Amino acid sequence: MNSSARPATSEELDFLSVQKNSQFRETFLRLCQNKAAVAGMIFLVFLILLAVFADLLFDYQTTCVDLNIAERLQWPSAEHWFGTDQFGRDLLARVVHGSRVSLSIGFIAVAFGLVVGGILGAIAGFFGGAVDNVIMRLCDVFLAVPMMLMAIVIVAALGASMVNLVIALAISCVPTFARIVRSAVLSVRDMEYVEAARAIGVKTGRTIFRYILPNCMGPIIVQTTLRIAATISNTAALSFLGLGVKEPQPEWGALLSSGRDFIRDSGYLATIPGVCIMLTILALNLLGDGLRDALDPRLK
Amino acid sequence: MSEPLLRVEHLKKYFKSARGMVHAVDDVSFTLEAGKTLGVVGESGCGKSTLGRTIIRLQEPTSGSVFFDGKDVSKLNRQGLWEQRRQMQMIFQDPFSSLNPRMTISQAIEEPLALYKICPDRTSRQKRVAELMDTVGLARRLYNTYPHELDGGRRQRIGIARALALNPRFIVCDEPVSALDVSIQAQILNLMQDLQKEFHLTYMFITHDLSVVYHISDEIMVMYLGQVIEKAPAEKLFANPVHPYTQALLSAIPVPSLHDRRERVLMTGELTSPIDPPAECRFSNRCRFATDHCREAEPQLLEVEPGHFVSCFLCER
Amino acid sequence: GCGGGSSDTSDGGAAAEVDTSTLTVALTSEPDYLSTCDHDSLMGVQMNLLTYNGLMRIDMETLEPVCDLAESYTQDSDTEWTFTLKQGVKFHNGDDFTADDVVASIEYAQTFPASTTYTGAIASVEAVDPYTVKITTASPTPNLLYDLAYHYNFILPKSLIESGNDFSANPVGTGPYKLAEWNKGNTITFEAFDEYFDEARKASIPTLEFAIIPEGSTRTMSLESGEVDFVYSVASSDIERLQSTESISVTDVVSVENFFLYLNCVTTDFADENLRKAIAYGINREDIVAGALNGFGTPSYSCVSMGYAESTDENAYTYDPELAQQYLDAWGGDPSTVSLDIICSNDTKTAIATIIQAELAELGITVNIEETDDATYQAAMRTTDLTSAIVSWSPANAMTYVQRFHSDRRNQTPACLTDETMDAMVEEMNVTMDDAARSEMITDIIAYANEICPFVPIYQVNYYRAYNSALQNVVCSATGYVDFCTMSWS
Amino acid sequence: MARYIAKRILYMIPVLLGVTLLVFFIMHLAPGNVAGMILGENATPEQIAALEHEMGLDRPLLVQYFDYLVGLLHGDLGTSYTTGDSVTNEIMARFPYTVQLTLVAAVVSILLALPLGILAAVKQNTWVDNVSMVVSLIGVSMPIFWLAVMLILLFSLKLNLFPVYGADSWKSIVLPAISLGFMNMASIARTTRSSMVETIRQDYIRTAYAKGLSRKTIIMRHAFRNGMLPTITVIGLEIGQMLGGSVLTETVFAWPGVGRLMIQSVEGRDTPMVMGCIILMTICFSFVNLIVDLLYGAVDPRVRTMYR
Amino acid sequence: MNLNETPYALEIEDLSVEFRTRDRTVYAVNGLDLKIRKGETLGLVGETGAGKTTTGLAILNLIQSPPGVVTHGSISVNGSCVLRIAEPEAETPEEAPVPAENAGTVKLQKETPAEKEPEKPAKAIRRKDQKPQIAEAMTEKELQAMRGKTVSMIFQDPMTSLNPVLKVERQISEVIEKHEKLSRSEALDKARQMLELVGIPGERGKEYPHQFSGGMKQRVVIAMALACNPDLLIADEPTTALDVTIQAQVLDMMKKLREQNGTSMLMITHDLGIVAEVCDCVSVIYAGRVVEHGTLEDVFDHTLHPYTKGLFNSLPNMKDRKARLQPIPGLMPDPSRLPEGCAFADRCRYATDRCFHERPEVLHRTEEHTVACHLYTPENIQKGGVLDHE
Ligand SMILES: Nc1ncnc2c1ncn2[C@@H]1O[C@H](COP(=O)(O)OP(=O)(O)OP(=O)(O)O)[C@@H](O)[C@H]1O
Ligand SMILES: Nc1ncnc2c1ncn2[C@@H]1O[C@H](COP(=O)(O)OP(=O)(O)OP(=O)(O)O)[C@@H](O)[C@H]1O
Ligand SMILES: [Mg+2]
Ligand SMILES: [Mg+2]
């Protein structure tokens, strides 16, 4: 304090090189101790890689769109690992490309729901009062309708397409996220460090983004993973009802529901996408559970 | 007497609640000289924290005014308040919840420096942070650690360093040591006293630990249900408590010694609800000396002898 | 109860003994109405056939009109017809059937705008005596007998018409079955009408129950488990297995319902005949049938379904990529600028479009598939905004079919092709009362239609009805109906 | 308490209004010509216009909405576009089936889930825990309709135990209820487990042990009710899920409920019917939530006293 | 074993408890000895994390396991053994030096020369196994019979130690019902009497915990703990969560009740003031080990251990406001990485090399007053004056 303002020597600032041991890293390490969660994570990473590099593995046009009626409905074999569908397309290729569609529907819809719902929830939670009331009553309206029904109505109104599906699913995510973020914000809002931030003159926006939201991430991250799972499964359900994505886009739910016609004689057609959906949801759930445990300070 | 650093006048802070108005701070007035420490004691829920927060306007007062250095803080606009915050800081009770778990120590201390553009560039900021860490006795190797890796004493030091970063003149200390073990508590108390001397700080020291408040304060203010019931220099108060509540409070301190034991004045009952209290002496239902008069009107805070203020009908008469 | 008491059949399959007093039929969707004039849906008509009769009926095998409530008829002039009615016919409510009922019913039907096509030609109906009716048409109407066999003109009891009966909830007619219970969304149960007038067509199975099972695989499985005796519409993916199941029979009827690619011939490139033909030749219908229909359909090359007496494949198209290329060249445009947006209103249509998409890609034409629901599709059909759609049509007779080529249909499908020669041919046919001459004219019209290619035929639907092998006399018409009256248990 | 219930029911009114508004306008976003669809392809534009006028479709949307609301207040949900019947009648014919299915599914899933969850929590980190959690994870991840078809194949065709479709005997409801309830059972079990695990760690459980109570008493008397609180909330949400999921189950099993009616009406663009279904489901869901709240109050005295 | 012959309500010998989590092992209690005479109150004083609560829980055999493991030691209540665990490596613990690989978990050697060994010598069952051996333990049934009846415990936080969904009287009555074999209604009556006893109107027993204030809750907890007249009451910081005035009321009441019933008590606290007020003896615990033990007078007026001294010096001086506090520098060592020698060494002004390498043994000043510190030898301990008193 009493030292004069001479330039700092490198030695004096030596402490800067001490490595940060962030909580995220710690959480991650703790997560890694949970075998199930790691399995889920590996599977998801694998899937995401598949989705990203799908084009390198299978050419979309020739394997997923072009028909090959001569080879229709072939059981899995060395040539077609997952068999072929009723149009003679390789199911493996379609499943691989489908992972891209399904995952992006899940991720985009949830991301949208998270951003919009998160902002609404953060606003409601942070400011409280009338704003909170209006936002929450709106959420009540959306939540009063069972999510699936809401999605059906929206897709039905907008027409079945991937974009509309994403919109419908995203909209049905918004109120849930708004609520979760709101309650997370409420639980953090009255923490002393938020008050401390105000005391040292931190402005509202920064308070929300630097002090409140990062500390609400726990329940939000967990909910996000579970929500993605729910969205993928809802996509499949909407596809089943004929409100899913369009042919020839190989969305898993669509694969599963078109495969259901053949479930008796070509069971693999429905089973393989079904198992893919199941595994993905399972992996997301495992990861979500693992995250919940890893983020729980009591289990430290 | 010259203008005191802090003058609080008829400060009120009410909260709306489902069952009525919570009179958390109800018509509090006092003054505080620069460089002094005012201790505030009282039972849990009597409005100590609210008073502290309202003074530095972390909460908007319901009515009343706070003059800091002659300036009415309660009338400042946003920008003015923001400027004013450099002068008035706060140290919080819970060292475990008063630090953002996602910010390293250096980030936490650097935050006010950056916000108020106190240091022109990063390096000088880092240097200043390191200096502050030295000042409060934090080893520099902790520069990049996160609060959860540290014990309560160290965390409280971070809170102090953060408050000091802006070179304030007045600090509200809301129970800064009550979550700490005695040995650590003593370290922090010493530190705070040293800092007070070094930087000529003025403290408002909130606590419910009477031995601590006696040790650190020049003046002590006893609160009960949102009101000040007694205020006097520390020695005077401990030597001659006037208000029955103060008497009971002081006698309740467990003394860690086998010899000079006090006579216990046991109080019955507990703090009543601060929701829409009736116009009577708020302590009357627990008071040994309460008369009908006490239940009919509210006593005023009167100066019974120089510097010793009491709010009780017993001494009014 | 219903379900054919199958829950008690322990050792599975349709092989188990059946409850011969009941016939349980699995339907895909529920009819919206059991009344005659409120709908024009296949399921509704199928139900109407159970509870009502018209003066005429269409014979399910020949598709020709034959007398039903009429004993006989005479054509007095180009526009005047006299019908002698059967006597001793009773309605379900006990009323006797007389000429007054005929008059009341037809006049009742005429109050419904949707029935215009079938009642519009009738200028007047008079009861000459209790069992004689005289019908006068505004212009020569060779179609009258067909129209009278159409459900709009089914006969209802006059007393109930006048009392404002809800014929959907209480379908009282003269039909072989009467409604026992309509459990909305679940089952519709009919009971045989003992006093049915036509001994030959009197129902032999006392109870007829329709179960609404929307899921194809569930329908099939319920037939296999024996809960259902008759599946009205079999999911194509299950046909093969059912065919090979011993206790289950599958009838396969090539229907007159044909699916075609409707093209906007007014505002798009498809106004050019060559381009349309290029597409007509560029589509491999065998592939479509195999891929989209699991092989259960019949490729269609002529603009009017084969199966009518007048049908012809003159000038019909084939799958011929070279020819397609030639027509494309003849058109002269750049195929990559053509974008063919096909509106598909259900999964089958989407599957068809998917294959068309793949095949037209070889001609360099891009196909986009637009999946919509029915309402959007119908709305699009009424505009010239659409490029194309997959459409199906199944008129009861060829004459009705070819009338479609006349330009007066433009007010319903404004984007359809209009051709003066065609208009003249159709107008001439419309007033030709001589059956043989008219037939010939119809054949000519079909051949001409194939030449100008107003749309691209794709396939004719095969109706697959699967049922317990113990059922006899299963008659399924090419127009989609099943004759439940003649069925019996062996 | 009565006041609280009344307040809750009153509160449902604005929510329902919001729902009607929302659904009404979403449905009217949809393109397509309702009158044209009703009249079929042979109708002339004049006929369509006439019908539109008759149905009031040519008026401004807000006017239509208010008309609808007025009708709604009189218990009149309008007339179905496709069947011409009163929507109220149509829905009410199917409603008991949906209630039956959802109730049975809910009861079965709760009865299975609670013991499963509690057992897993009590035997935390043993094989019992692992097995029950694997089962419930599978349950959560299995698409409803896939499970449904599999169930039919196994129980109806192979084993011939239950009918494939319909809603006639008690046997009919078994498979639909399983397929509908399984997923929900799984998530209820998971919630129960985690809340029980949490409860077991609480101080008052330790206090109870220190009192010398047996493990069984502690689980049943102390942990159970506290552990139930989050579960009750989840059960409410899950019943909402089931109402939504019934669309699928009812379609697969040809169960004549509201869910199927709704999807049918969505396809047929039968706006009044869709609105009716949604409103009914929403009311049901709201009532479920009300019951959940009351139950919550019954279990948790803190909530109870708050509303006294 | 012969019950009730021993003069002690509680005897803990050489208790070691570890918490083994995945990434580290916390040595919470390391060779702790405690004895409470019947009818006496022992204060257990120490900093946060010193192992006070763990010790209390160990007496009831309620340490959460996993992660908690009692690795060594014996506990008996009224002479009946709750738990006795033998360390396999130590053949003859009386002589065996601390094994090197065991440095982290250093076990104190036994030195209780003044007291008689319990009838069953600890070495009776000793194996060369790797795992700690349970030599003797109460069955679950016996434990249940003991908990709440012979020994009861008041937990640190009254706010969370009551079940929020059960009526207060029910929570008290269940312990009575369990141990006194009374019917439900009789037990409820008795529960209401207990409430009256701690100064709460009996009819408020029908209420739920959240309707009570903190002080009242703590009283309920006390009523619950005293309901069956336990021989030993473990009070784990019973007043930390309360205001001073309420604390005074509660302590006062506890004192009265204890005197009435002749209950022995283990008073866990970190407040020396409370100790001075309530206790007969004090044990000062540091890093899981008793560093000084004695009567109040011994410890307050003849302070031996530098840590105890430090604690007193840290407290604000009520006589001299201006006197500067003399805090103990530094922090308690990380309980998962305890040093080899004296755990207090690095905070100790007097520490020598020896302190860092060798664990001090327990020395007696008087029969009662013991200390574990290298400053003392049998000679200088009697003289005193080793610590410079200001
Ligand atoms: N934000 C708020 N909203 C409503 N009531 C509040 C709020 N903050 C404080 N109160 C109420 O105001 C009263 C005084 O609270 P305050 O926190 O100032 O007391 P305190 O003396 O600091 O107590 P403690 O010693 O427990 O910290 C309490 O009754 C409290 O419930
Ligand atoms: N369940 C547990 N898992 C892991 N470590 C534990 C557990 N319980 C206690 N510990 C550790 O054991 C050590 C002693 O804890 P204990 O609770 O006995 O301390 P204490 O003296 O009661 O402290 P306080 O004064 O804070 O109550 C601490 O370091 C603590 O972190
Ligand atoms: Mg406070
Ligand atoms: Mg403790």
TrEMBL record, chain A:
Residue intervals passing through the bilayer: 36-58, 101-127, 134-156, 162-181, 267-287
Membrane protein topology class: Multi-pass membrane protein
CDD domains: TM_PBP2
A Pfam short name: OppC_N
Protein name in the entry: ABC transporter permease
Compartment(s): Cell membrane
Keywords of the record: Cell membrane, Membrane, Transmembrane, Transmembrane helix, Transport
Residue ranges the record marks as coiled coil: none
Organism: Oscillibacter valericigenes
Family assignment from sequence similarity: Belongs to the binding-protein-dependent transport system permease family.
InterPro entries noted in UniProt: BP-dependent_transpt_permease, MetI-like, MetI-like_sf, OppC_N
Domain ABC transmembrane type-1: 99-288
Record carries keyword Transmembrane: yes
TrEMBL record, chain B:
One Pfam family per UniProt: oligo_HPY
Protein's recorded name: Dipeptide ABC transporter ATP-binding protein
The organism of origin for this protein: Oscillibacter valericigenes
CDD domains reported in the protein's UniProt record: ABC_NikE_OppD_transporters
Molecular function terms, GO-annotated: ATP binding
Record domain ABC transporter: where: 6-250
Species classification: Bacteria, Bacillati, Bacillota, Clostridia, Eubacteriales
Signal peptide residues on this chain, from the entry's feature table: none
Keywords: ATP-binding, Nucleotide-binding, Transport
From TrEMBL, chain D:
UniProt keyword NADP, yes or no: no
A matching Pfam family: BPD_transp_1
Transmembrane domains' residue ranges: 9-30, 101-122, 134-157, 169-189, 229-253, 273-299
Mode of membrane association: Multi-pass membrane protein
PROSITE patterns: ABC_TM1
Keywords carried by this UniProt record: Cell membrane, Membrane, Transmembrane, Transmembrane helix, Transport
Compartment(s): Cell membrane
Main location: membrane
Domain ABC transmembrane type-1: 95-296
Entries under InterPro entries matching the protein: BPD_transp_1_N, MetI-like, MetI-like_sf
UniProt similarity note: Belongs to the binding-protein-dependent transport system permease family.
Descriptive protein name: ABC transporter permease
Species assigned in the record: Oscillibacter valericigenes
UniProtKB/TrEMBL annotation, chain E:
Annotated compartments: Cell membrane
Biased composition (Basic and acidic residues): 108-122
Residue ranges annotated for the ABC transporter domain, each copy included: 10-312
Matching PROSITE patterns: ABC_TRANSPORTER_1, ABC_TRANSPORTER_2
Region (Disordered): 89-132
Classification via InterPro entries: AAA+_ATPase (IPR003593), ABC_Ni/Peptide_Import (IPR050388), ABC_transporter-like_ATP-bd (IPR003439), ABC_transporter-like_CS (IPR017871), Oligopep_ABC_C (IPR013563), P-loop_NTPase (IPR027417)
SMART domains documented for this protein: AAA (SM00382)
Family as reported in the entry's similarity comment: Belongs to the ABC transporter superfamily.
Name assigned to this protein: ABC transporter ATP-binding protein
Protein keywords: ATP-binding, Cell membrane, Membrane, Nucleotide-binding, Transport
Highest rank taxon of the organism: Bacteria
MF term (GO), any: ATP binding
Gene3D superfamilies in the record: P-loop containing nucleotide triphosphate hydrolases (3.40.50.300)
Topology in membrane: Peripheral membrane protein
PANTHER family given in the database record: DIPEPTIDE TRANSPORT ATP-BINDING PROTEIN DPPD, OLIGOPEPTIDE TRANSPORT ATP-BINDING PROTEIN APPD
